[in-house]
Amino acid sequence: MNRLLSSGLLAAALLFVPTLAGPAAAAPAATPTGSPSATAAPTVTARGDIVFLAQDPWFPSGPLEVTVKNPGAAAAKGFFVLRLPDFVEPTSGADCRSLSGTPRSWLCGGAELPAGGERAYRLTVTSSTPEPVFGVSAWGSVAGRDAAGVTDGFTDFRINWPDRTSLRLRATAAPIVNGMTTVRVRVTNAGTFDIGGYSFTITTPDGVRVTAPACSDSGRMNGVGCEVLRRGVLADGATDTFDVRLSVTGGTKTVRLSLTPTSRYTNKDTALTLRLGGTGGSGAGDASTPPSADPATTPTPTAVGTSTPEAAQLPRTGTSGSVYGLIGAVLLALGVGLLVLRRRMSQG
């Protein structure tokens, strides 16, 4: 029995191990044998700081800070070699250019450093995984290099993708006036840490068009609505509130609102449907409870499958009234029959 229980627990644990289509955590790379650092003392060193990817959850990006130092006794130009894992690219900063013949490597920097001086370079790196991934890490590395090509040993830094989290979606729609309506959207960070941006989409039928805010040009909606990227930091417990303006023609319409990508969220109340009409509308997540009509009143929960009992009553015991009525009717019929029989006997 213990062996079966252990096997079951192991199988359940394996089911919850995430399968990564993109980056995976890799062991820090060792300095290749025969590199310049193995034969010559470095004149320039470099160290990279940890990277947290955020903002657009489809292609998150984040800052990488590299500190280049000149430990020598004379001024020198301070370069650094940057190595990045698959699906991570440098997009701006530090004047980087690809190193020919060395895959996934870039030569950056080059400013003049005084003896004992240093300079911090700030780059932006972006994830380019085919599908969004969450809660994973990978490793990059940097090495200092001087103008003569003497390169220090590589040191590693970690790159963190955004973690999965919980966001709660609520929305209300104002009445349609002159073919326009406003949807007030409220997104609450129900997780335990700050997030650096999220994606919100509104799917629209024919006759409904988003006029504000500006939609993303990613093409992911394929003409059926609008994707809005919210790039600000949303603290845990905080609520992001914003308006979506809609142009509506052709009568009552229904729109679908959702937080994307769905694989990021651990809760269910991340999507809702709104009916747009002359009286407005409101909606909440799929797993939410409708609010009370009186905000000051807290509804009392009722257990599923139970009913509210009637007022207290005395227990009904003994013979019921219907039984007594039946006995009385029988006795009355019997009495009438005896009376008729007696009269007939008297007449005879």
TrEMBL record:
Keywords associated with the record: Cell wall, Membrane, Peptidoglycan-anchor, Secreted, Signal, Transmembrane, Transmembrane helix
Superkingdom classification of source: Bacteria
N-terminal signal peptide: 1-26
Span of domain Gram-positive cocci surface proteins LPxTG: 314-348
Family matches, as InterPro entries: LPXTG_anchor
Stretches the record annotates as Disordered: 275-316
Comp. bias regions, Low complexity: 285-309
Transmembrane segments: 323-341
Name of the protein in its database record: Gram-positive cocci surface proteins LPxTG domain-containing protein
Coiled-coil regions listed: none
